[in-house]
Amino acid sequence: MAKNIDEMSFLDHLEDLRWHLIRATLGIVIAATIAAIFYKFIFDVIIFGPTKMDFPTYNGLCQVSKLIGIEDTTFCAEKFPFKIQNRTVAGQFSAHIWTSIYVGFIVAFPYVLYQLWSFISPGLKDNERKSSRGFLVVASLLFFTGVLFGYYIITPLSINFLANYQVSELISNEFDISSVIAIVRSSAIASGFVFELPIIIYFLTKIGLVTPQFLKKYRKYALVIVLILSAIITPPDIASQVIVAIPILILYQISIYISAVVVRNQNRKAKHV
User: pLDDT category, 219, cuts 50, 70, 90?
Assistant: First the structure.
């Protein structure tokens, strides 16, 4: 018979956590295995999609450039001035395995989150559990939105800038497969976690570590941090940094509103006690 949460010892909690981690890992492994089977689609269409000029982002930016009177732009080129190559014996095999694992993590993220929530939720009060009912759905939607933003915005901007950056005409660009994959992977996954900001602020407010007044007071410092973050995950041009900074700043404003709602609900409950 399952033990009540209050009757569980520290070792029981560790055992429970271990099984949740095992189930989460199995979810990732299953998703990674499916990704490994469909490796041609994963690599040719998804991973190397942003390296082709017919990628939707380049087409859109090309049309925008023409509308504002800019004809000579790298977004409208026929192809990128680089080749993708493999320079290690096990390079393609390693790329296949590790890419499958990362894709598996992204696909299985809602299930991983569910396992984490299943471990935490028994320790919450009934009203806390009810107020957090939509956590899994909202957190998953935010993560996937961030992944898509990183893939369709940050990745093509980065590849376009770096592929066309040239210090000398004597140098030809021949990028290693691991370098290209790293740009796609880091842009997508990093953006996915950045978009979880409202969820993080929600829980920090619930436990009293953050207040809307605190977030408003340090808004200017948050702006600096956002700009630094944008500079890290994007190529060093102002346009790309602004494009990335705008949604992060919007998320920060949404987080302030969420924090205010949480504090208001807590104060309302305190008055009725």
Answer: confident
Q: pLDDT tens, 177-190?
A: 999 999 899 889 98
End-to-end CA distance of the chain: 35
d(CA 76, CA 63): 8
Per-state percent for the chain, helix, strand, coil, to nearest 5: 75, 5, 20
Displacement of CA 235 from its chain's centroid (Å): 17
* C-alpha closest to that of 244 among 222, 225, 229, 223: 229
Q: What is the pTM of this model?
A: 0.85
From residue 230, give the alpha-carbon distance in Å to each of 106, 145, 161, 223, 247. 22, 17, 15, 10, 11
Residue-averaged pLDDT of the chain: 84
* Cβ contact 245:230 at 8 Å: yes
